[in-house]
Amino acid sequence: MDEELHHPFERTIIPMTSITSGTGYEVLPDLYALSLQIVNICFIGHEHASEFVLIDTGMPRSADAILDTVRERFGSRARPKAILLTHGHFDHVGAIRDLLEVWDVPVYAHELEIPYVTGKEKYPDPDPTVEGGLLAKISPLYPTEPVRLGSRVQPLPENGTVPFLDNWRWIHTPGHSRGHVSFFRDADRALIAGDAFITVKQDEFWKVLTQKQEVSGPPRYLTTDWQAANDSVRKLAALDPATAVCGHGIPMAGADLHHGLQELAGNFNKVAVPDYGKYVDPEQDRSH
Ligand SMILES: [Zn+2]
Ligand SMILES: [Zn+2]
To answer: FRET pair for 275, CA 20 to 30 Å: which of 11, 107, 159, 209?
Structure first.
């Protein structure tokens, strides 16, 4: 049977380009994804709603684009109830300090991620030697200095609920980083997956440029625990999300997402785990 029939809204993800910001995607009526250079952030809340939540903050120097989008979508005086972080890599917390200067709002991250966003711990260095092309080779240029949010960030509630988002829950999806989380809404199986998996093959530069949709494992040069990453992908595949916004790549939905994610979960060691790289062999020294 044609599975497309069961996902009639698959084609409803509408790309929208705004002059001031990057490309936006109306993924669901209350889920808007904004693509900033190579990374996606999410706004949860209907257009013009008085309450919304921001998930992740994109690359450094993205604050203006984010503020413009908030003004366009929610109104000139709008601000989120909270900022939720999938994890603390530089491309997901890039604008957060600038935003917190404008907005006095709480930030939430997984308890295990908090040391990395308060300067207490530094992420392991990206691995330029990992199998996987140009983006890995230039990865030493990426900032690894942790963002320092101090007391502005607090742990997500232990019971899995998400502050200000009644129908969502957070799911611990470590591997790419220790305290990585995804956000899921059971009612319509909407998933925000951060970098637990992505929908572009980031290791192939032309696919990054063209943003060809393809369910792929987490970005290789920053993923340090491949077994945990594998378990996390299986966990998310078992939820059978109907729509997914990932940290990288164009949002996906319906049969393409279903098949892509099943395939990734079923063949993770073969297709996602690099053949070589310093974080691949657990016997190797991880101290630098
Ligand atoms: Zn990441
Ligand atoms: Zn990322």
So the answer is: 209
